[in-house]
Amino acid sequence: MAQFQEVLKQSALHPKPAGLVLQYGTSGFRTNAKQLDHIMFRMGLLATLRSKKTKATIGVMVTASHNPEEDNGVKLIDPMGEMVTQDWEEHATQLANADQEDVLTVLKNIIEKEAINMSQEANVFVGKDTRSSSASLSQAVLDGVSALGGHSKDYGLVTTPQLHYMVCCQNTQGKYGEATVEGYYTKFCQAFIQLTKNTSNRTDDQKHLCLDGANGIGALKVREMESHLKKELQISLNNDGSKGRLNHQCGADYVKVQQKPPTGIKINPGERCCSFDGDADRIVYYYTDSEGTFHLLDGDKMATLISTFLKELLTQAGLDLKIAVVQTAYANGSSTHYLENTMKVLVRCTKTGVKHLHHVAQEFDVGVYFEANGHGTVLFSKAAEEKIQQLAEDTNVNDKRKKAALLLRNTINVINQTVGDAISDMLLIEAILAIKGMTIQQWDTIYTDLPNRQLKVKVADRRVIDTTDAERRAVTPAGLQEAIDNLVKKYRQARSFVRPSGTEDVVRVYAEADTQESADALAHEVSLAVYRLAGGVGDEPKPLH
Ligand code: 16G
Ligand code: MG
Predict the structure, then answer these.
(1) What is the mean predicted confidence (pLDDT) over 196-205?
(2) Which residue numbers are catalytic?
(3) What's the fold here for domain 183-297?
(4) The whole model's pTM is what?
């Protein structure tokens, strides 16, 4: 077929470096930008096939999120704006690693296996972050799409969640919103303004937010959005990309991992601040108190605030809808305890990685999911949305129920349900704090985090560690879980688990306990057990103190 001749010709212009092997990891391919040109071209091909298969628009986002500026990566987006399914991740890995002369064979295998009708039209949306390598890499994606005769639309610079939104809007014929950045700002900002409209005692302090844009795409987009907020939220934007480097000593990942504010930002005591990551699909909040102590409000704190707010509204509205919070093993034990025992909310634990949380959240009427690192959102089932909509329109209900239903409806509209979205999460959190008349300190005291520590251990082959029970228990190597159990017993309120990282060649160790000293000691002892039982390489882990 002429189509395949074109692929062959074009593919030669995007050659694969010899010997390079890459995996479609937890969230796509990610490595040094210099090694990615062929991957991008091939993902353009794959997205075109996926579009033909699903008879819908598919998204391809060029970004390496919180990684350093010199890296890049790519994420594929399925028709409803969710991440691509796992069986297609395998196709992606195969296509990415095929030798130059095998590209056509692998492509044809996928077409056959998926029974793709090649005469079906294809449509692919492409977006990119602010990395200097993103321009040529996204062009390579577009080349891949056109080589297979697909149509494409290049959205240029957008956040990852914005592209997820576009794909969802396009495939639902505009029911989710208009598939433009203007449409995005209009939808989310209008909902925010509706939510905060009757919070009459909102002070100027409450309207003011300090934001660290990680010198990335999120900063650019917040600037663009500002006028839509009509001064109802006044953002002081730091790390807007005009000077500093992307993700360098700033951004959500830096703040969460280092447990300190971004370098170079002046923060007044008590001031409410937040940080986005490099593609604006994560957010964390924080403040420093009058003694200068730093306080982080991570994904667990956000999940708690949001689920409490929603549960109260559902009760006021008299709606019997099942709400649950989905977390991973990294969720602070205090948050789980508070949600289960004080809030009486159902809590589910899944494996690390957004797609796992997203799928479990879909099982409930209202599924709030957050990773501790700040990626999360809320999913409403179709039935839940309909019930809320009906009640909001019902003329025969009392004021209290009606008011709750209207708030719920606007809350649904301020949330990007396709994926965790720093901009939409920020608007949601800001609205909840405004409605509750709550300061960040008050939010912080809902529960107190247990001290915790994360460490990494280098081993010869991290795949020797196999886990179960949502990564909370190690099945192999023999004796490791028993060793962890015995160490945990030595400390109070203690918990520890180990898992092979999905993004780095290390084993991750997590420990929490009643004091920082205990958490540190436990993390170190568990690291030693991993080192000894799972084939550690290099020096033995040293104590932290
Ligand atoms: C990726 C995941 C994130 C997860 C992290 C774990 C997505 C979009 N991102 O960044 O959810 O927390 O990997 O990394 O799924 P690790 O396996 O190295 O601990
Ligand atoms: Mg990200």
Answers:
(1) 83
(2) 65
(3) Alpha-D-Glucose-1,6-Bisphosphate; Chain A, domain 3 (3.40.120)
(4) 0.96
